[in-house]
């Protein structure tokens, strides 16, 4: 019998004609699954923040910035919540790699929704960790998420330095130096993959490097919109 990756309770198998014909191992119980609610209702068309205005104030600000916005748009699957914070802490900071599989099915479903309006052949590029963070955590959560997607992957980005963005204020993030460089040019449209969209600065830094090296267009697909 499987146990839930979140609460560790036994998962009772559901027996129906569908499960008999298309067996699928459940990694999360129904109770925990009900707490994982995806973003619903009106959202900002540029960053996925809940908004009834089409575009939120942050995205309007990015569009008015002196330099052209490097990120075409972002699509996020889940809103940030206390329950999500608990999962991210256990998965990302306590090294529970298998916990990431909780998101696999829903992440794929929403990815199909995001790209259904485009015919471009995108490549998934995960946001990299510094060598220090990679060694500390044992894995890169963005790379794990990218592996869930049914498109080619390219680990061409490299992070310089090891400053933690999570501990910076919004102003500090906005004024931070670009921490990325590209290992080699990538002249294909890119979908950047990361776990959390907060201010969008990290993703825009990465997008800027890609555009400067010949990439024609950059979107981002993230697990959470905080």
Automatic annotation (TrEMBL):
It comes from the Bacteria. Residues 167-224 form the Phosphoribosyltransferase domain. Belongs to the ComF/GntX family. This is ComF family protein.
